Amino acid sequence: MNRRALLAAVPSIALAGCATRLGIADRVEITRKFVRLHPWDGEEPIDAVVRRYDPDEGVAYDDPHEAIADEIDPDEPLVVPDSMADRLEAEYEIVEYRIRACALDGDDCRETTLVREEFNAVEVGDVVDIVSRSSGAGLVNIHERREERD
Predict the structure, then answer these.
(1) Element (H, E) at 8
(2) Which of 43, 37, 140, 30 is nearest to 97 (CA)?
(3) Is position 117 within any domain?
(4) Could you report the per-residue pLDDT of 60-109, keeping only the tens digit for each?
(5) What is the top-level taxon of the source organism (predicted)?
(6) Taking burial as the number of CB atoms within 10 A of a residue's CB, which of 13, 58, 113, 147 is the most buried?
(7) Among 150, 139, 147, which residue's Cα sits nearest to residue 12?
(8) Integer Cα distance of 102 and 137 in angstroms
(9) Band (19; pLDDT cuts 50, 70, 90)
(10) Rounded to 5 degrees, what are φ and ψ at 87?
(11) 136 against 111, higher pLDDT
(12) Do the strands 136-144 and 26-38 form a parallel or antiparallel pair, or are they unpaired?
């Protein structure tokens, strides 16, 4: 890594650690990732694909909805590529990229929305620092990947 790239990365790394220590960001474990689709006709939202993590049982998918079933590989992390996102956004009024995140002690769990790029960057079981905001959450830092602990 060249000096300029290193110097550019230092503030981001420092900000992630400081944001958590200052209470601006929450360190949480992602226990569920899912794509929620809101039909144009006002029907109830559909959780089209759900990937879960349980420390005792590991990682698993719930049965995916027909709108997305052919594009999900049960052995791969849940990632929504541009082509799938474009198709879903054309077919549904709202497409949400959601996570369920729990405090590390497991007591406080919340669901929130991420932008697709941040949603794709994390996997169930990862420990991350997120900042809550009115439009959803923002990923600050991936603190620890699940596969690093397993």
Answers:
(1) helix 3-21
(2) 37
(3) yes
(4) 999 999 989 999 999 999 999 999 999 999 999 999 999 999 999 878 99
(5) Archaea
(6) 113
(7) 139
(8) 13
(9) very low
(10) -65, -45
(11) 111
(12) unpaired
Question: Cβ atoms within 10 A of the Cβ of 68, count?
Answer: 18
- Number of compact structural domains in the chain: 1
Please identify which residue in the block is written with the tokens 């959803």.
Answer: 136
- N residues, the chain: 150
Structure tokens, 16: 């992630």
Q: Decide if pLDDT at 1 tops 60.
A: no
What local confidence, expressed as pLDDT, does residue 22 receive? 40
Question: Tokens representing 51?
Answer: 């990937």
105 part of a folded domain = yes
Q: Please state, in angstroms and rounded to a whole number, the distance separating the CA atoms of residues 150 and 143.
A: 15
Domain membership flag for residue 12: no
Report how far residue 140's alpha carbon sits from residue 25's, in angstroms, rounded to the nearest whole number: 8
Rounded to an integer, what distance in angstroms lies between the CA atom of residue 7 and that of residue 78?
33
- Cα 109 to Cα 89: distance, rounded to the nearest angstrom: 28
Q: How many other CB atoms are found less than 10 A from the CB of residue 95?
A: 20
* Share above pLDDT 90 across residues of the chain, in percent, rounded to a whole number: 67
Residue 15 lies in a domain: no
| Host domain of residue 103 | 26-149
